[in-house]
Amino acid sequence: MLGEEFLSLSLDQVCSLISSDKLTVSSEEKVFEAVISWINYEKETRLEHMAKLMEHVRLPLLPRDYLVQTVEEEALIKNNNTCKDFLIEAMKYHLLPLDQRLLIKNPRTKPRTPVSLPKVSPSPVSASRRDCVLGKWPSAPASKSSLTHGCPASWLHLRPKRWSLLVPFKSAGTGAPGWLSR
């Protein structure tokens, strides 16, 4: 279950998060489930955005069984022609031999490639690499002004199941940039 912070994100924030090639997720199923949860949280006002969000879910990368048993059975997918087209695309992808699948190049067939996690000084950090499920890792800030005025990144902790804002800092010893959970 996703936290209140994720469910309260704006459409643009969710699109930015799930469209990122650098999104760190344990599986693409988590992205699909996050989209469904976000829509259902305020279904009346968010339903119109279903196709825009599903465009960023990499359905062809989901296991075939999950596509048939979960995605195809989801009412939000069944009731949206564009989403059904994305599902058909994913099913066709799975019907192709592996060598032909590798030739299909579009954003939904590109595996996510998360960046390595930032190194932090031995300051208190409330989460570790294995805790990050759905979040966007920021790159190092470019300047001191961006350290204080930049937008914080966020990530989801597995154990307490909550979102945390990450704020930039500079190591007192080395001056190296890093990110701390607050």
Automatic annotation (TrEMBL):
Record's keyword terms, sorted: Kelch repeat, Repeat
Entries under Gene3D superfamilies matching the protein: 1.25.40.420
InterPro entries with a match to the protein in the record: BACK
Biological process, per Gene Ontology: protein ubiquitination
Superkingdom: Eukaryota
Pfam families membership: BACK
Record-annotated BACK domain positions: 1-72
Coiled coil spans: none
Protein name: Kelch-like protein 3
Organism of this sequence: Leptonychotes weddellii (Weddell seal)
